[in-house]
Amino acid sequence: MENVYDLEFYFSPEIENWYTRNYQKNIKSQIWILSDIYDSPNSASIKIGELITYYEPQENNYILQFRRDSLTVAKEIRHIGDWGYGIHMNVIDKTKEFARLPDAYFDQESWLGIKKGEKSIGLNADVISYVNQIVVLPKMKAMDLNSKTIVEINRGRYFVEKRQTGEFIIREEIPSDMPCGLEEIEKIDLQTLPRYKIKLDDLLGSDGDIRIDVAYKKGC
Predict the structure, then answer these.
(1) Predicted local distance difference test score (pLDDT) of residue 70
(2) 35-53 b/e with 16+ CB inside 10 Å = b?
(3) Do residues 22 and 124 both lie within one domain?
(4) Which has more confidence, 108 or 175?
């Protein structure tokens, strides 16, 4: 895996309004098709599936499903969080109109439409580099760039300083990375902080998901 990006999108007013009208009724919603999925980044290529959503009262939230054209579920995301602040997922490549999903979702190359076209459905999503962002990482192996040894870093928040092919250079988060309010922030010499190199392949979970997430989805 050469890179990973944060894809962010918002529900349409129709979906948001359904929730406002019906969330107290304990009923399942209709199904909305959010985007088409293709085998290459071109809407003239073979359509292999769709991204859909529906409200599930047992979860008290919306569910996302990546569904094959046979209508079988390739991948389900049941914990999308507070969708009013945006819905986030990880993708591994992008073009102007498409984002590539992790290959494990459809067991093949699969591209999600991220812009609405004349003949295709898309999300109107933003695909953002993780560089210069604070992220949450799992407990994992990393290379200490000072000692050149392999160490284990704890689960927590880190700042991504640089991307190399298949790798991120990171350091631990400090208060000035996310200044909030008017309080005075202690100055820390960045040169004194240890840097680590992580392999993006090590972020792949057994379920095919990529274990990296935006740390502050709601801002301060």
Answers:
(1) 85
(2) bbbbeebebeeeebbbbbb
(3) yes
(4) 108
Count of the separate structural domains present in the chain: 2
Residue 103 CB burial class (10 angstroms; 0-12, 13-18, ≥19) = middle
Q: Which residues contact 11 (CB under 8 A, 6 or more apart)?
A: 53, 62, 83, 87
Question: Residue 169 — very low, low, confident or very high, per pLDDT cuts 50/70/90?
Answer: very high
Task: Find out whether 193 and 171 touch, Cβ atoms under 8 Å.
Answer: yes
Same domain, 95 and 29: yes
Per DSSP, 101 falls in state P
DSSP 154: P
Q: In this structure, are residues 74 and 153 in contact, taking their beta carbons and an 8 Å threshold?
A: no
In a domain, 99, yes or no: yes
53, two tokens: 């959503």
Name the pTM for this structure.
0.91
Measured distance CA(210)–CA(53) in Å, rounded: 21
Q: Which domain holds residue 146?
A: 134-214
Per-residue pLDDT, averaged over 11-31, amounts to 95
Give the three-class secondary structure for 88.
Answer: strand
Token pair of 220 as six digits: 């301060």
Question: Which of 109-118, 125-134, 206-215 is least confident?
Answer: 109-118
Structure tokens at 32: 């909305």
Gap between the Cα atoms of 152 and 172, Å rounded: 13
Q: Terminus-to-terminus CA distance in the chain, angstroms? A: 31
**Whether pLDDT at 189 is above 90:** no
Residue 219 lies in a domain: no
